[in-house]
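Example (one chain per record):
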Amino acid sequence: MTTYRPGPVVLVASLLVAVFLLMPLIAVVPVSLTPARMLSMPSGELSLRHYRALIEDPRWLDGILLSIRVGAISSAFATLFALTFSLGIWMFQPRFAAVLVGFVLLPMVVPPVVSAITLYFLLTFLSGVNGVVGYDTWLGVALAHAVMTTPFAVVLILVALSQVDRRIDLAARGLGASLWERATKVIIPNIKFGVLAAWLLSFVLSWEEIGVTLFVTSVNAITLPRLMWMGLRDNIDPAIAALSVILILITLAVLTARALLRRRA
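Predicted structure:
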């Protein structure tokens, strides 16, 4: 079998394109080391003051913890909703399955500002009913994020279900397995990686969500993306650059660990 390898021109062109795409990320590193109080390139002197600010300023730690809490709850709800809906579509095959799937996927099609305004009115209404889940509460933010991330989880789980042989479900049904046993002991074990991928994607989308968050929060539920947005909009805090560098390093570490695990496997 003939193996085709790229020539030196292709390799150089690919390297130039990669450097061009990575330049915005690389430029963040020196900006995070500036001793100035504003976003700027360092002029000879380097400083770690903005990295220390991430530790000393409790707002950043509170924002990170709140984002983790919101992401964990919203991704759990989104995965549960998506799994229940997808199993119902796959097992019962209703006549209007395509219409139901299209309705669930609406948040992916509708402009984000429309979804944000709708969720704003919903959470404002819930605020008048209770003080736990409503506008500017962390549970309200988690609910809004779950609504926005559920369609993505539905797509991943439906794709995983499309790879499952229906005959194993029919065999379990013929042997007298109940609906619950078929779902939990036969189908879900065969799509566990799809469910895990749906949860992970939902968590990542919730972690970086800012559009809807701006509409459903005010002063109490300040997630990390909203705090970064406030820092860029109000005072252009260089600590945002330092936080960006940390997030880039974490992402690189995760991708490197994944590549090493796949190579070992």
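Caption: The chain has one domain: 62-264.
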